[in-house]
Amino acid sequence: MQKRRRTNGKEAKETRLRIGPVQQKILLLLLGGLALSCSRSPEKSWRIIKGMRESWKEINRRAAERAINALYDAKLLETKVHSDGTTTLVLNEGGKKKALTYKADRIKIMRPSAWDRKWRVVIFDIPEDEREARDALRAHLEYMGFYILQRSVFVCPFECRDQIEFLIELYAIRRYVRFMVVEYIDNEDHLKKNFRIK
What we know:
Blueprint: H1 9-16, H2 21-31, E1 35-38, E2 47-50, H3 61-73, E3 77-81, E4 87-91, H4 93-105, E5 119-124, H5 131-143, E6 147-150, E7 153-156, H6 161-171, E8 177-182, H7 188-195
Antiparallel strand pairs: 1-2, 1-4, 3-4, 5-7, 5-8, 6-7
């Protein structure tokens, strides 16, 4: 019989938190340099003091404050207290990783007006003990429109090096992943048909 792992109060609170769309948007805006502060302590209502963007017009102020407090309670944010008594919220390492994950979910590859006749190939051999990173990479590649040439070989005809670099850094899998640009693949007629290119 397997022993059930005990969790302390902090772990339980983090496990219970379900990151909704408002929390996702807040994490991404904080990642992009938005600042949040309150007059004295985290228990006070947070207010946005800089970095106001169009995105915030879509968020109800009360909903934003609830979301911020939930993220703070979940230990994804930390506070910096200033000499004037004000406090600013910033992402901690856990919050940055979570925000980067949501940013990764939005990655797309732009289709150019003319194809440069080169294929981008991603090959990886990620070990079983890092299967979560492996599965996440596969999911991202499929979402971005890569063609599955083999189980761990994905192909795309469009420029995507920056996107692949981002995913490699996010999941810390550089030693397992190779990125190539090639001019010929023996079944490229099939690939061209798949990507609707000539």
